[in-house]
Amino acid sequence: MWRVVRESGALPPFGVSKRIFGARGWTLLAGAPAAHFKVRRPDSDHAVLDYVGLPVRDELVARDSTTWDGRGLLLGREFCRFRLEREDV
Length: 89
What we know:
Blueprint: E1 2-9, E2 16-21, E3 24-29, E4 32-43, E5 46-51, E6 56-64, E7 67-74, E8 77-86
Antiparallel strand pairs: 1-2, 1-8, 2-3, 3-4, 4-5, 5-6, 6-7, 7-8
């Protein structure tokens, strides 16, 4: 589980998280699944989340072992910046 921390753009300021398991995952809003994605890992420091059925993609860069910097793209145009922080489970 990952908490999404909004840094800029069109993204709710709280209540967004991501559940990633292997090569797939979900974005959750207030704990409810909102969008399904597939995970690509071009290398160990980068990941891309391709949303199924939506023209949305998240590009992620590892900051450290528990944090990723991300940007959301809609039709190839950036619409937000965020940080993913690992949640204790």
